[in-house]
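pinging the channel bc i need a second pair of eyes. not urgent but kinda urgent?? the chain im working w is below, pasted from the shared doc
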Amino acid sequence: KKKWNVFLYLLLFILVGGTLLSLLTKVTFIEDDQTTRPRLLVISPSTISGESLRHGAELYVEKINRNGGIDGRTLELLERAPGDLNFSDLGRDKRVIGAVGYLDKTLLERDAAKFKSLNIPLVTPLHLEKPLDGVISLGSSARAEASFTANYARNIEQQRIMYVIRESGSEYDALVTPFLEVYKRFDSPVQTV
């Protein structure tokens, strides 16, 4: 019995001592070096849509950090307006691991190759008719968005009557046709005026 008591005291000493040593090491030797934290670049204008994009990126970064960060490191958010990007500074900052943004296709097309040359992946909420090298597009086509809206209105909101008011011109047909198709599919009478 005496041997078991000595063994248990020794085991308790090792457990407590190991825990204290671990905490001491974490507090004194492992510190968060802010100069090497990974960064996510958000490129958005000072508009309501830009603000929504920034809030979405903030929520994403909070979730990543709440789950331990990237390889145990805190992810930082770096915000820039499209006109405030300095690509030479961006190329020197090796902490930038990705970028999200651009709400203007012209600016996106202008800058996409620069991000590609810096090996910074770029994600945009815009729909791209033609893919851009190094850019991931999360957007849907205007037709797909119109079809989604029609399905939502008809099936979720239970709107049996829908008035579609549009500009004149054939370019708007692609936006009206999905509404008509959805309502016809669910045997809702469609009348054009």
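so The helical segments are 2-28, 48-66, 87-92, 105-117, 142-156, 173-185. and DSSP finds six helices and five strands in the chain. — does that match what u expected or am i reading it wrong
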